[in-house]
Amino acid sequence: MTGRVPASPHPNVRVDGVGHVVTVTIDRPGSRNGCTGDMWVALGAIFQDLRYSGARAVVLTGANGEFCSGADLTGAGAEGDSSEPSAPMLDAMRVLGDVVLSIHGCPVPVVAKVDGLCVGAGLGLALAVDLTWCSDRARFSAIFAKRGISLDFGTSWLLRQRLPVHKAKEMALTAKVLSAQEAFDLGLVNAVVPTDELDSATAEVVGAIAGGPPIALSITKRELDNAAGSSLAQALEAEALAQSVNVHTEDMREAMVAWFERRPAKFTGR
C-alpha cells in the first residue's frame, strides 16, 4: 500500500493494504465472525492506527461469507480459553464504547462490505462506518431483545442517524431480521448487489473515494458527522474554517489546473 499498513494485534482480525486502500477483515470461522472482547479491542486499536497510516479509504468486512454475528457471548477467547477472570460489566462496556468511538471517529472514510449475517454488535459495526454496501443475501437485525438485553455498541444512537425514530424503534423492539432489500428500502444501507458483484461494487465506490482529495474528504466527513448536533450558523463557520485550510493545499491547486487542462486531477494528500 502507498503509506503504512497497520499491524493487527489479533489473529482473527486481518489488515491488508493495496494502493491507498486498507481492508480490515474479521475472520473467525465457526462463529460467523462473532467477536470476543480482545477482538473488539484489536479493532479499536487498528482504527486508531489508521488515522495516521496514509490510507485514503478503508473497507471493513468479514470472511467466510459472513459479516459479523455480534459479540461472542460464550466468553471464549481466540483459542477457546475462558479461564481468565472477566472485567466488571461497566468497565467492559466502556472499553466497547471506546472501540465504537475509534471506528466512527476515524478521519479516513470507511465503507462496510456486508455479506451474510450482520446482527447485534455486528449491526452496530456496520452502522459506525460511513457507507454500507451489501450483498443480496445479507441479513440485518438489532437482535439484542432476543438476548434479553437492550441496545449497545452505539446502536441506540447509530440507528437514529440512519432511520426515523419509529423505524428505529420497530427494529429494536421487535428484533426482526431484515433482508438486504428491506434494509435498503429503509435507508439502512447504501446499495444491494448480487453476491458475486459485491467485491467489484465495493471496490468501485472505495476507488472513487481513494482517488479524491484526502484532506478535503476527511474534513467533509467531519462536517457531515457534526451536522446533526450543530446549528446552521455553526455549520457555516465550520465550512469557512475548512475552506481556509483547503485553499492552501497542493490538492486544490492541482484540481484547478486539472480542470483548466481538462484532465483528471491527481491528488497527493498535501
Uncertain stretches of 5 or more adjacent residues: 77-83
Order of helices and strands: EEHEHEEHEEHHEHEHHHH
Number of helices: 10
What is the second-level CATH architecture of the largest domain? Alpha-Beta Complex
Helical amount: 40-55%
Top CATH class of the largest domain: Alpha Beta
CATH topology of the largest domain: 2-enoyl-CoA Hydratase, Chain A, domain 1
> Gyration radius, to the nearest Å?
19 Å
The main pleated sheet reads as: 6 strands, mixed
Percent of residues in β-strands: 5-15%
CATH superfamily of the largest domain: 2-enoyl-CoA Hydratase, Chain A, domain 1
User: What characteristic shape results from the CA principal axes?
Assistant: globular
Query: Could you give the order of strands across the largest sheet?
Result: 1-2-3-4-6-9
Q: Distance between the terminal alpha carbons, to the nearest Å?
A: 18 Å
Structural class: alpha/beta
The number of domains: 2
Let me know the average pLDDT. Answer: 92
Number of strands: 9
Structure at a glance:
The chain has 270 residues and is α/β, with parallel strands linked by helices.
Would you write up a description of this structure?
- This protein is of the alpha/beta class.
- The protein has 2 domains: 13-210, 2-enoyl-CoA Hydratase, Chain A, domain 1, CATH 3.90.226.10; 214-261.
- The protein contains 10 helices and 9 strands.
- The strands form 2 sheets. A 6-stranded mixed beta sheet has the order 1-2-3-4-6-9, with helices on both faces.
- A hairpin with a 2-residue loop joins strand 1 (13-18) and strand 2 (21-26).
- Helix 1 runs parallel beside helix 2 (89-104).
- The longest helix is centred in the middle third of the chain and has 16 residues, at 89-104.
- It starts with 12 loop residues before the first strand and ends in a 9-residue tail after the last helix.
- The relative contact order is 0.11.
- Residues 77-83 have low confidence and may be disordered.
